[in-house]
Amino acid sequence: xxxxxxxxxxxxxxxxxxxxxxxxxxxxxxxxxxxxxxxxxxxxxxxxxxxxxxxxxxxxxxxxxxxxxxxxxxxxxxxxxxxxxxxxxxxxxxxxxxxxx
Length: 101
Known about the structure:
Elements: H1 11-49, H2 51-56, H3 71-100
Helix pairs in contact: 1-3
C-alpha cells in the first residue's frame, strides 16, 4: 500500500483561483442588479413622460372629478424622476468600477 501524499498548491495559484471565483461572483452581482433596476427605470421613465398619470396612480378613486395638478407639482415630479435616473445610473457604474478595481 502506498502512503497518502498531500498535493501542495502554491499560494500564488490559490490566489489566482480565488480571483477567478470572485470575478464570476461580481459579474453575477452586476447582472442581478441590472435586472432588478429595469422595472424601476421603467417606472421613472413613465413618471417623467406622464407625470399627471403617475401622481394620480392609485388615488383616482378618492376624487369624484379629475383633480387639477399645479405646474409646480408636475415640474417636481419630472425633476425628481430625472435626478433619480441619473443617480441610479451613476451608482450602477460605480458598482462596476469598484468590482473591476
